[in-house]
Amino acid sequence: MVLPRQPRPRVAVLAVGVALSVVLTTFVGAPAPARAGEQASLRIDLGSPIRFIDPEVFGSNVGWNAQSDFMKPGTTLFYPRFLNQVRDVGFGAQRFPGGTLASFYHWKRAIGPLEGRQPNTFFGSGSQQSQLGPDEFGKLMEVTGATGNVILNHSESLQDARGYVAYMTLPAPSQPVTDPADPRYWAGLRAKNGHPAPYDIPWWEVGNEVNTRSNAGWLGGQLVSYANDNCPIDNVKACLYDFGGTTRFTDEPVGDGADHSASHSTGLPGQEKFVTFAPVVPSSLTLAVGGRPWTDVSTLDDAAAAATVYRLDAASGRIVFGDGVHGAIPPEGAPITASYDSGPHPGFVDFYRAMKDVNPDIKVCLGSSSDPTAGGAYFQNLGSDYPYDCVSTHPYVRPGNSRAKGEIPNDLPESEYYQELLAMPDVLAGQVRKLREKIDLAAGPNASTVDIVLTEFGQLQSATPAFEPKYHLTMQQSLLLAGLLREWVELDVPLAEQYLLAGSPFGSTAPHGNVNVNSAIVGPGPDTIAEPAAYVEQLFRPLGGQQQVTVRADAVPTLALRDGTQLPVLKTIAAHDGNRITLLVVNQSDQAAVPTTLTAGGNQLLHGAMTTLNADSALSYNSPDNPTAVSLRQSQLIASGGQVKATFPAHSVNLVQLTF
After folding, report:
1. Predicted structure pTM score
2. Yes or no: is domain 22-53+547-659 CATH 1.10.3720.10?
3. How much is the pLDDT for 364?
């Protein structure tokens, strides 16, 4: 099931004083410059609606390997403190199973009773029992009130894709269905597994960053053939992804189905191994044990005890060896490798058709682009002839020397690094705007039906300044998140999910635990800790579902960047509901507080209250030793003469509630 989405009107006509929710924002770059002796002011214009803000623009990513530190061991239950923290933040959307992890994830391994589940692999090397699976993700959405976004491993089959959509989104059938080819079978299986109601998962991505080597999957093999020989764009990977085809892998280690690196013989009888990318083109596979070729046979029943033979199931890629009576056992420790043609695989056009056939209400997105400047060939191939609902892309701050590319050198001193960071929201927003232009040109008359969704964004872990290894957790870095969220609202983005919801940068309890430092909530549990990024999302989240209008800024001071660029110190977004105004103010200065006068046009402000997120130092973050170094603080504001005066501390995010 997909719950009905609230319409997204571009402009709504609202009357001041009517009990309707209205959102307001300041246009960065528009405020009048500060004048000596004059106080900054923000005038809220309740009569200037601009656009609807989607709640899902305030989302995050859930990596399935978060199970190690955020769930009770041996159960499918999250720690209560973690659930409460996620609920308090109020994320509008969550993405699963998490970035590159999705390119190796097989959902069927992670459903049903925990004791019967199979492991999934971490990036192809190492594996762990599937504790956090599709049902646990779905229940997390229900408990926290978010909608879901699921990444389909693009190396899966069409039947797997159909089954996944059905398992997550279709109502359970009234009568048992026994044929797995019928989507209702999978909805019935979900009900049997303890959840009769479907989950609200409106967004689906086919693959994650498939234009990169680490996420290529079957696309990363050597080209054998295209499903579409008339592919418009001369880009091998894009043609394969869009339309399907066959590729070849040479001397690939043959693993155990979950861990691709488990490619040495155990010395046990009846061993089973799997090629990484099934199906296998019949008769294309050659297999070697310890560097020596073995022979494929149709059955092991007639094989001699010493015969170096195996049996291949081409559809699943499963390889079965003998038991020492019928066929030889590969010597213990011997490496097992295979060369084979992988395919034919479906392309995006096939996945789109199959998934929408199961549930036409879902949005199916191209999972092609690692950043807004890449991946154009993937949608240019489709043009206006083949439908796609959305293009997912990942605007990140990256290490490097080009501001225009969203890069900051890691070796800059703190003051210069922060100046560059302040420029990044505008830079990354510019990349998204250019991507929009490319999609409009490629999709032609269908362009208005194609959304850009930012299913990851933030600052890459590799973009870590030398002066602070835990920079991604700091109050200063959370101001980047605040600036980006504001830009996504301005761009009318329907879905944006910051990376990452949960990780354990201070140490994980498991060998393959998620130790990402760019996490909003950190473990290990049960005593998880909310970081500044979580609080920023919490302060922004009330804007979702409301209308954006204008805030007029005057005499706002500016900040000078290294190249002389001037940025206003204050950025704002606000909401109006009945006689209440909610105003969000970000002070980007790392040193100076900004006293500000707040007005609401012709309305007399009567009272105000402010919740402030900041810390003693811009580089403060929360840790097991000091879990409240960065926290929310509340204060009361006094109205006088229909105005309210507030002082926004340095490096802070402030939520002001006003009544009139």
Report:
1. 0.94
2. no
3. 98
